[in-house]
């Protein structure tokens, strides 16, 4: 995330607000815009218009759009709790995964940014260090912790981004769910009996807490089942 020393950001003609700009304020408004309208709506021009400044003024704070997206990922990662108050590695890992999910769940449109940017900034590096330390405590070596840590964080992001049903902010969400359910229910029962039977939960996530709890249980169960987990010996 690059900043510039070149002069003051420029106001758009007839509009104010540039003096109140900051990286924190811009990241906050970018997150709100992406939550409401998706990442495709998040452009330098749109952000400039939202804040009443010229597009060039945005480059005083971010070198390009990718730098802004990186700052969004860092904002989310900085909110993950990294408590290590003792207890078993399993309990500490579950607490970390739970916090990671709690941060991402309100932001399904932005969560995917986290997957490829965890090692790009200080907040993401702190998350990586924490999860690798917990997996080391589980008895895995450096290569295994890198692999399992990557699998685990990617799986948690996917739980959020691939949850059944349209995002909560989707226009005509109920209509989309209804049409998807009808399409699945109308499939050939001879070829797709199981899809038809699961049409309702495939069309929408009826209980998000149950959905995420099951996903978390599957992930933790898989880590527990790895050879050497919990023994400190491989």
TrEMBL record:
Statement: the UniProt record of this protein carries the keyword Cell inner membrane: no
Positions of the HTH tetR-type domain: 20-80
UniProt key word DNA-binding: yes
Coiled-coil ranges (or none): none
DNA-binding region(s), residue ranges: 43-62
InterPro entries, A to Z: Homeodomain-like_sf, HTH-type_TetR-like_transc_reg, HTH_TetR, Repressor_TetR_C, Tet_transcr_reg_TetR-rel_C_sf
Gene3D superfamilies hit by this protein: Tetracycline Repressor, domain 2 (1.10.357.10)
GO terms assigned for molecular function: DNA-binding transcription factor activity; transcription cis-regulatory region binding
GO biological process: negative regulation of DNA-templated transcription
Keywords assigned by UniProt, alphabetized: DNA-binding, Transcription, Transcription regulation
Pfam families (UniProt xref): TetR_C_1, TetR_N
Matches recorded under PROSITE patterns: HTH_TETR_2 (PS50977)
Record-linked PANTHER family: HTH-TYPE TRANSCRIPTIONAL REGULATOR RUTR (PTHR30055), TRANSCRIPTIONAL REGULATORY PROTEIN (PTHR30055:SF151)
Protein name: Transcriptional regulator, TetR family
Lineage of the organism: Bacteria, Bacillati, Actinomycetota, Actinomycetes, Kitasatosporales
